[in-house]
Amino acid sequence: MRADARKNRDHVLAVAGSAIAEQGVEVSLRDIARRADVGLATLLRHFPTREALLDALLRAGFDEMTAKAGELEGSASPEDALVSWVRDCVAWTTEYRGATVLMAAAIKDPDSALHASCVILRAAGARLLHRAQEAGVVRDDIDGDDLFALIAMLAWLGDQPALAPRAGRLFDVVAGAVLEGAGRASRAATGGSGVEQG
Fold it and tell me: Which candidate, 104, 105, 95, 92, places its Cα nearest to that of 24?
């Protein structure tokens, strides 16, 4: 790509990022083009679909979150690694209002421009989840798809003005249920009550 074309593309991306942060992913592409002072045809030449635009915006974040999962696998306890990664993932996805809705749909749609990135992200989280399950600190009846759905759910809460103030506390509630569920499931399997007998 020529330097001027790359500069033009980066400018459109920057404007689109601001517009989506303000108005959500359903913001008009025509409005983005107008704010970027380019024609709609120019915008569509760089980003033929809304999902292609969003994938370009989120690309650095996808790469960063995938890399972070790899780092946490070797540097933190399985429990801390999983909770830390999910918390950061939720925070990152809420930077662009409504992005989680498209990501949740894209994970099941191979034709989506976001599909490949979402699959890689889900796999990174699934590895952290499996590691925590092997350590016995996370309930074993959830999988990578469930984890991806939980991230989308928690990020959706952060997107809702009326619910956003509760998002942090509800994250802790969900994380506690996932983690404490490991102990409850283990006790149920052994028939124990979890109360030490004297």
Answer: 95
Residues sharing a CB contact under 8 Å with residue 171, sequence separation 6 or more, in sequence order = 87, 90, 154
Cα 119 from Cα 83, distance rounded (Å): 20
Q: Could you give the CA distance from residue 83 to residue 109 in angstroms, rounded to a whole number?
A: 27
24-66: pLDDT as tens digits = 888 999 999 999 999 999 899 889 988 899 888 888 888 999 9
Alpha-helical segments (H) within the chain: 3-23, 29-36, 40-46, 50-75, 78-93, 99-106, 115-134, 144-159, 164-190
Q: Which two tokens stand for residue 167?
A: 């998002």
Residue 177, Cα to own-chain centre: how many angstroms? Answer: 20
DSSP run (H or E) holding 1: none
pTM summary value: 0.78
